Amino acid sequence: MSDQRESLVHVRGLRKSYGDFEAVRGIDLDVWRGEAFGFLGPNGAGKSSTMRMIGAVSPVSGGTLKILGLDPAADGPAIRARLGVCPQDDTLDTELTVRENLTIYGRYFGLSRAECRERADELLEFVALTEKAKVKVDELSGGMKRRLTIARSLVSKPDLLLLDEPTTGLDPQARHLLWDKLFRLKQAGVTLIITTHYMDEAEQLCDRLVVMDGGLIAAEGSPADLIRDYSTREVTELRFGPDVMLADHDALAGKVEDLAQRIEVLPDRLLLYTDDGEHAVAQVHERGLQPAAVLVRRSTLEDVFLRLTGRTLVD
Amino acid sequence: MALAVENGRRMFDYWLTVYKRTWKGTMISSFLLPMLYLAAMGIGLGSFVDSNGTGALGGVSYLQFIAPGLLASTALQIAVGEATYPVMSGLKWQKFYHSMIATPLRPADVVYGQLGFIAFRVFTSCAVFLVIITLFGGLKSPLGVLGLPVALLVGMAVAGPIAAYATILDNDSGFAMVFRFGVVPAFLFSGAFFPVSQLPDWIEWLAYVSPLWHAVDLSRNLSLGTVNPLLALGNLAYLLTWFLVGTWLAVRGFTKKLIG
Amino acid sequence: MATIAARVVPVPVRLGGGRHIVERNFLLYRRSWVVFLSGFFEPVFYLLSIGIGVAHLVGDFTLSDGTKIAYAAFVAPAMLASSAMNGAIFDSTYNIFFRMKYAKLYDSMLATPLRPWDVATGEVTWALLRGAIYSAMFIVVMLIMGLISSWWALLALPASVLIGFAFAGAGMALTTFMRSWQDFEFVQLAIMPMFLFSATFYPVETYPGAIRWLVEITPLYQGVVLERAFSTGNVGWFLLIHALYLAAMGTLGMYVASRRLGKLLLK
Ligand SMILES: Nc1ncnc2c1ncn2[C@@H]1O[C@H](COP(=O)(O)OP(=O)(O)O)[C@@H](O)[C@H]1O
Ligand SMILES: [Mg+2]
After folding, report:
1. C-alpha closest to that of C204 among C231, C190, C224
2. Which of A315, A271, A274, A265 has the alpha carbon at shortest distance from A294?
3. Would you kindly state where each structural domain of chain A is located, as residue ranges?
4. ipTM value
5. CATH code for A232-298?
6. What are the sequence ranges of the domains in chain B?
7. Which residue lies with its CA nearest to atom 10 of ligand 1?
8. A197 lines ligand 1 (CB under 6 A)
């Protein structure tokens, strides 16, 4: 089975330096055709640097990178002809209208004018911007711009779609709308590579992901696998009043240590990693502790990240 | 009033701080280019004009004929330059006016500060240019130094209306129009290079509408010693009217744009 | 095929991609054609101001070969050359800097199969097309004002495209070295003296030895010589040297620009 999979992006020992600073410090991965692959990591992890190398717009500093079987240093244009790219910062053509942004972008790919018009209308429909077709890009909201950027990346019917933080900076409603669009693309068989620092986004969209930090890959797997391997089924969060200091947290942690497989002490709360959260809560009360608030929840990728790096994803 | 002065001063301080970073670049457009014009036209071309006979100019050398006009034109160009892109930047691109309004400053203060800074730019640049003109021998009489306040006045006369215009524009392509159909024709046809009486009548009348012609005429008459008091008062009144109406328009424009 | 060529030939040879950038600019200006047309007026204003006003003060010029020429006829071809220079410089410096640094336009273009070379050729081609339209209109105005005295003037249009090419290439190359808007003052510093002193307003013979030599090596001077020769019909083989100078300048500029654009944008 695994021999049959086609690797669209093949990465071994990949590095990227800017002057003396090394942003990507040797990573290995493969992205298979048809999957939704994610990079999860905090700001500065090296996600965008990696994406730009995969997008064949940033020279590789070291290691091997093959995209669609081709070498980006020699065949950049041929590779880019088959990619769709949604960069972290919108690079829409602000001097043109919404629809013109799509048609002219298609022309850059060498599509015929008729084809561009047809694709533009389809895609405007797809991202629900048909009414805005004649509007200048400047007048769009952040979420609309993002949708337009995604529509633009689809003009050339790419084999592989690169989405760098597709929903960062959007309000929750706009994010859900975008997730819905991306989910439909995935259903349609488009291979997706997504970077994000939102664990819910990674869980929603990715079949498989790598956790990236400081230019390195800390772990790899499906969201469920990662949670199983690096966390417990449930987490009990204990919050104490505002007068309880961090030092007290450490003392409190000592009192409940044996109730969980693992304990994390955060500035504002204690996390007890256990397979039965309610049981832990009962035990905490039994020991006479009086947390101001208690929450029992499922483990998430956030917990995985905390376990792997000792830090939270979004701070 | 005291508040307006104080707040306007704070705005002015802002611009001065910015200018401390960028003044070197503006040296080129502020003195070097007018100086080159003076050399190319006044001295280079002037040698041909003078040898052809200067009857049409009333017997003065071409250098002395154009120098006061170039001074006034320079004032106009600096003022328009400072009232276009920087203003749009404050309103649209960097939006620093909006952050100023979030402090006790009012839109009118922003305008006064902006105009104050433009006055500073026009005055300092023209003062230096005037020294250069004098060294070249471009002034016929010492009264010609009064061209400096005249230059300041014409700068202020156009700064207000242009800043007001900047508040109603969606993008900067409108400025290209200001330069192409305002500044350039004014520079070329307001009598700086030749007497406007040589123009066809209808263009001559257009020249009289332009504030620049009034400034050119006044500063030239001062330098050549051909002042007619009544006409001079007319020139001054016309320029002052532009200044006052323009400032009022700018305050109105800024108020509308910044606080609804 | 294209990729093999790209590997073997150091300068990319395919010009094709640039035409889509021309198309993009056309799309943009189709909406603001008033602004587009207005670009034509500036040189015409200069011509009128000089033709009506200054010419009256200067009288006729006697050139070094003894021919007499009306002052307006002397200045007009120089205005044609200068406006070709100005248009090309504006398009290739301010416009390109804005698109590169602020609009991030080229970032999005280079994420497609387009390459830096396509961006450079596309922008320069656009600048030349636009300049050619202005020049053609200006030549018509010269004709109407009776400032053209030879059929050679048919070559004035290609000559102004060549001038545009030289300055657009060089301007674009310089733009890739610009750090901020302030640096553009230095562009002005190069352009304005050329406009004023490159035998535009009076003959080069006016200058004493060393200064004359300095004027004769400026790029605008080459353009002025070409245009003046064509509008007066005073042609000779020596014009080829001036044309070659401009062609070399443009080509070198384009080469540097596309190399540097690649370095700047593909980090
Ligand atoms: N062009 C650049 N020049 C210098 N440093 C850069 C450049 N781009 C990114 N970096 C640095 O590389 C690191 C990784 O950045 P990036 O790949 O953008 O991370 P992420 O997308 O995960 O936030 C950061 O520390 C960033 O400051
Ligand atoms: Mg990033």
Report:
1. C224
2. A271
3. 7-220, 232-298
4. 0.87
5. 3.30.70.270
6. 2-11+26-258
7. A23
8. no
